[in-house]
Specification:
Length: about 230
C-alpha cells in the first residue's frame, strides 16, 4: 500500500519515492541501499576502481547508482542482478566466477578518487545507529574462515578514517535470504559513514568460491520507525 510522507512524496510499498530514489526505510541513510536505482544494462563489472554502471569496464565518473568497486581482484565481478532479490527487482551480486582467490570491497566512497561525500551517510557523533542487511549466499567450492561481511567505517568531516563502526558476522556457508542487524555508536569526530561490502577468502583453506547477493541495506538512527516492517 502506498504511503504519503509529510513532504508530499509517495512511498510505494515502503520502497519507491516519486523522485525516483528508493529507500529500504523512510530514514535510511544509505544511498540506494536496496539497489533499485539500477542501470539499464546489467553486465558484470570486472574492472577495479570503477563505479558500477552495468558495463564490464565500469566508469571513472561518479554514477547515480552509488556503488564503487574498490577493488576487484582475480576475476571477481559485481553487478546489479534482476534475477535475485529479497524485495523489489534488484540486488547486488558479487561473483567470484569460479576463482578461489577472488576478493573485493564494494563501497560508497573510495580514497582512490575525489571523496564523493554526497553518497556517504551523514551521521552525528556520539549517536547510536542501527543497521540491517539481507544476504543470500551460494558456496560453489572450498572454504575459508573469512568470507563475506558488511562493515561500516567512520570518517571525519574531511573524509579521513576515524575507526570502525558496526560489522556483521562473517558468512562462509550457503544460505537463503538472511537478515543481519546490529547497532554501533559513532565516535567523537565522526561525520560520515562508509558502508563497505567485503568478500575475502583468506584464512582456513583460503580457497572459498562463493556467490553473494546483497539487498535492503539500511542504516538509521536507533529508534527510527521502519516503514517496511
Amino acid at each position: 500500500m502506498a504511503r504519503t510522507l509529510a513532504s508530499g512524496r509517495t512511498l510505494a510499498s515502503g520502497r519507491t519515492l516519486a523522485s525516483g530514489r528508493t529507500l529500504a526505510t523512510a530514514n535510511n541513510l544509505v544511498y540506494n541501499g536496496d539497489f533499485e536505482i539500477a542501470p539499464a544494462f546489467t553486465a558484470a563489472s570486472s574492472t577495479t576502481f570503477r563505479w558500477i554502471n552495468g558495463l564490464a569496464a565500469g566508469s571513472t565518473v561518479l554514477q547515480r547508482y552509488g556503488w564503487f568497486a574498490n577493488p576487484l581482484t582475480n576475476g571477481m565481478t559485481v553487478y546489479f542482478d534482476n534475477a535475485q532479490s529479497h524485495s523489489g527487482t534488484y540486488s547486488l551480486h558479487i561473483a567470484p566466477n569460479g576463482n578461489s582467490t577472488a576478493s573485493c570491497q564494494i563501497v560508497t566512497y573510495s580514497s582512490a578518487t575525489t571523496p564523493q561525500v554526497g553518497y556517504l551517510p551523514r551521521v552525528a557523533a556520539s549517536t547510536q545507529y542501527t543497521y540491517s542487511v539481507w544476504v543470500k549466499t551460494t558456496v560453489n567450492s572450498g572454504s575459508a574462515s573469512s568470507g563475506f561481511a558488511l562493515q561500516f567505517l567512520e570518517r571525519t568531516i574531511a573524509g579521513a578514517g576515524n575507526g570502525g563502526g558496526g560489522t556483521t558476522t562473517s558468512i562462509q556457508a550457503t544460505q537463503g535470504w538472511t537478515q543481519y542487524t546490529g547497532t554501533f555508536t559513532a565516535q567523537a569526530g565522526t561525520a560520515f559513514i562508509t558502508p563497505k561490502l567485503i568478500y575475502l577468502n583468506t584464512g582456513g583453506t583460503a580457497n572459498l568460491n562463493m556467490d553473494v547477493w546483497v539487498d535492503d541495506l539500511s542504516l538509521v538512527p536507533s529508534g527510527s520507525r521502519n516503514l517496511t516492517g
